[in-house]
């Protein structure tokens, strides 16, 4: 078979494996792939994927650490997916107040970018991502229902 050589290829494969809960049976292999991707090219996208992979693998504190690094690497305060996964990881660790603060940051970010997003052809994808991640958050922590479709990435 072919070997994944580029950081981007490794990152894209790892991301596909963490799109939804329980998408793959062995999440530690996905974490290792995402770690290789970060080692090959430390970028926002690679750090974000590693943070989400760690979250999906149940390594919540490690997830918080990597997602915080991703937010810093982003240069504009991170993306909504960073903040939702940060909120969920904090909630899983019992940090209720921090989880709520992070959730509010997501909505503030969406509000601040409303004018930009309303003119963007990718706004629908961005808002879809925010909405699906919020549904996942509600399903896990507030007893809401999650759509059956996996979360999609919008960057």
Short description:
By secondary structure, this protein is mainly α.
How are helices and strands ordered from N to C?
Answer: HHHHHHHH
| Overall pLDDT score | 79
Q: Look at the helices and sheets and give the structural class.
A: mainly alpha
What is the straight-line distance between the termini? Answer: 30 Å
Share in β-strands: under 5%
| Helical coverage, percent range | 55-70%
Major beta sheet, specifics? Answer: none
Number of helices: 8
Coarse shape: globular
Report the C-alpha radius of gyration, rounded: 15 Å
Number of separate strands? 0
* Low-pLDDT residue intervals, each spanning 5 or more residues: 144-155
Polypeptide structure, described:
- The chain is mainly alpha-helical.
- The protein is built from eight helices and no strands.
- It has helices at 7-17, 27-40, 44-56, 60-74, 80-92, 96-112, 114-118, 123-141.
- The chain is globular and about 40 Å long.
- 37% of the residues are buried.
- The model is unreliable at 144-155 (pLDDT under 50).
